[in-house]
Specification:
Blueprint lengths: L3 E13 L7 E14 H8 L1 H12 L27 H10 L3 H18 L2
Length: about 120
């Protein structure tokens, strides 16, 4: 028996007026579902998983697979970059350097920053 979704989900996002616009706005979309098969929603959500598998294990082992073979894999949520304070990231980066490397890196950053300051 096919399972159907009824109801609504709210999803959030953000957008800019154009690609190079400094202005952005956040929004929320309320998506309504009326007798939508669960398979239709899940298949779209799993597309990145399929692409990652093809580019990861799939293509390099192409000769091992048979036509229409069922290959079982575990689901993993899409990777998200961890949010890190830029200042903390820089401190960690500098902490891994020798004093000479630190001085050179800081000077290089100051030189680059002075070129962008008007």
């Amino acid at each position: 028996m096919e399972q159907l979704i009824n109801g609504s989900w709210i999803i959030a996002g953000s957008m800019k007026a154009s690609g190079d616009s400094p202005q952005s706005k956040t929004f929320r979309l309320k998506v309504h579902f009326k007798n939508v098969p669960v398979q239709d929603v899940v298949a779209k959500a799993l597309e990145p998983t399929k692409i990652a598998w093809v580019n990861g294990q799939g293509r390099p082992n192409f000769s091992k697979w048979t036509e229409n073979q069922l290959i079982e894999i575990d689901f993993r949520a899409p990777a998200r970059a961890p949010v890190q304070d830029p200042k903390e990231a820089m401190i960690a980066r500098l902490a891994s350097m020798t004093p000479e490397e630190m001085k050179a890196e800081l000077q290089s950053m100051m030189d680059a920053a002075s070129k962008t300051v008007k």
